[in-house]
Amino acid sequence: MATASSYHPSLALGGVFLSLFGAAWLAAACFAYAGANLPMFATVAILCLLMTMWAILTFRSRRRLFSGVTDRTAGARVRRGFAVVNIVQWSCIGIVVLVLALTDHAAWIMPSVILITGFHFFPLAKLLRYRGYNVTGTGLVLVAALYILFGGAGYSVALTLLATGAILWTSAIALLCAM
Fold this sequence. Notes:
Elements: H1 13-34, H2 38-65, H3 72-102, H4 109-128, H5 132-150, H6 156-178
């Protein structure tokens, strides 16, 4: 029988998002490296499905075991904060993508999206009281910075996409193991 964790069960739902977004980045990496390679895409899809099921099962089992104090005002504060962080993130991504596309700087879109995504994990770490998100954010910011400094040649796009997806999946696994 699993032991109760100090983390709220809804944190396990982060594993679903990390799994799905990680799979998207990894599928893009597969395409950048090998084109439309069905076995690679199928592997990513199967692993994503397994990780997503793990996250949902973790959420469901922890929800029954959770013995934390249910403070409705704290829950509402976390939900509002979560919404604000994600609205800011997606707004920034939309604006940056639009501006870079309109100014003929499309090559900067990918590292910009990774950078913004990385930065959004820092307030989430504090809000959700899960320090692992600081590591996720730092990893993504580092990947974006390395691409900005050294990217653009050879397999740098595929490696950047691969690193981003790997960080998100590693974060999902770490999160679910901490639950």
